[in-house]
Amino acid sequence: MLEVLRVVLPLAAALCFVWGAWRCAVGTLFPAITTATEPGGSPLEARELWRPALLCLAVGAAVQLLFVAWACGSGRYATLLDALDAQFYGNTDARHYLDLAQYGYGAGEAFPEQYLMIVFFPLFPWLLRALHLLSGQDLRILALVIQLPLFCAAGTGLFALVRSRYGKATAWRALGLLLVSPAAVFFWAPMTESLFLALTVWYVWCLQRRYWARAALLGMLAGLTRAPGGVLAGLAFLELLRCWRAGERRPGAGALAAMVGPAVGLGLYFGLNQAIYGRWNQYSVYQWEHWGQKLGLFTETIRYHLSYLVLWWQDNRPAALWICLTAVVCIVCSFALLAAAARRLPPSWLGYGLAYLLVTMGATWLLSAPRYAVALFCLPVAAAVLLQGHPRLTRLVGSLLLVGSVAYTLAYLMHQSIY
């Protein structure tokens, strides 16, 4: 059975990728023939965003109150900060962002393995550092509190983006699906998911509205937040190429700046590597030497996770379940979802989604597949579009995702193999 799955599942994911790539190419090069006009709504007004913002704030505050209650009830700690330290900063990458915010990059040993921390992109720790200098608050508190406005920005941006193209009902559906996604817990944890998603969706929104300067700035910041931020340059290229093929005038300097912005952000990160270590890709050296990670193929990721799933099932079942099984399900379902919605997504969004998954899911030792997937805005959009006109199926899918989200959150709180 294992050998069958090791062949069938990678093949299915690869076929979904090929189909999606084909639809992306055709939709970009021949927009007048293949791209239908979507039932978008009237121009979005700022006052329409207060409800999605309030919903995002309420859900985020509820989850973070759960964090605090769980931390306080999980042991005897002298202070709340000690409890948060033990529960939320010792078992994920959050502690590395806090150390970087306090001490910065470098080859010294101000904190353990400081020289390795160049693998983490700088915008989030820089943001925490700036807030700390302005407010004087503890970095551990800031790292949690800042997630609430960041996720409000992400949620309202997703709502605005989907509302402008598919209408209000689909926008609410996409936001609801995002909120109950199994790895949504990371939106309110001291990590970079909320920041990256907010920059991504507002970048695409500005790109579509032809706000070139704002798009260029947001794209640069996304490139400084996470590696897939640079992939936004490809999204902009596909969008501008589609518009040109549809008969619009050739892109001007502003459009080109918006397209180059994400690559500039990524280039600044490479420059940081060069300035500190004298090598622009030093991060990749450390990733390979210390974590066995480099770019690979998502089909191989499926195969080795299936092998480890069987190997660990008897003696390390939590790792088999929360690392291997979730990775396989996440990769296959993500590609299948994009393939199913390929005809109904804008070609540039589809291309970005495929490239994002290609980069993130192809790591040679992938530990965080659900966390990477939850920051890809195309996935809840694709699901929301496919569920249009199917209220019962929408409730069923939402219920299943919510059950998965609760299970994943509890596993995260209990320090299972979730990173």
List its traits.
single chain; 419 residues; mainly alpha; globular
Describe this structure as you would to a colleague.
This protein has 419 residues and is mainly alpha-helical. 71% of the residues lie in helices and 0% in strands. α1 runs antiparallel to α15 and α5 packs across α6 (123-135). 44% of the residues are buried. The model is unreliable at 33-41 (pLDDT under 50).
Write the layout of secondary structure elements.
Elements: H1 2-29, H2 31-34, H3 50-73, H4 80-88, H5 94-103, H6 123-135, H7 139-145, H8 147-166, H9 168-179, H10 193-209, H11 212-223, H12 232-245, H13 253-277, H14 282-291, H15 298-312, H16 317-340, H17 347-360, H18 369-374, H19 378-386, H20 391-413
Helix pairs in contact: 1-15, 1-16, 1-17, 3-4, 3-8, 5-6, 8-9, 8-10, 9-19, 10-11, 10-12, 11-13, 12-13, 12-17, 15-16, 16-17, 16-19
Distance linking N and C termini: 29 Å
Mean pLDDT, all residues: 91
Stretches where pLDDT is under 50 for at least 5 consecutive residues are 33-41
The computed structural class is: mainly alpha
Largest sheet: none
Beta-strand residue percentage: under 5%
Give the overall form.
globular
Helix content: over 70%
Radius of gyration over C-alpha positions, nearest whole angstrom: 21 Å
> If helices are DSSP runs of H or I spanning 4 or more residues, what is the number of helices?
20
List the helices and strands in order.
HHHHHHHHHHHHHHHHHHHH
- Number of beta-strand segments: 0
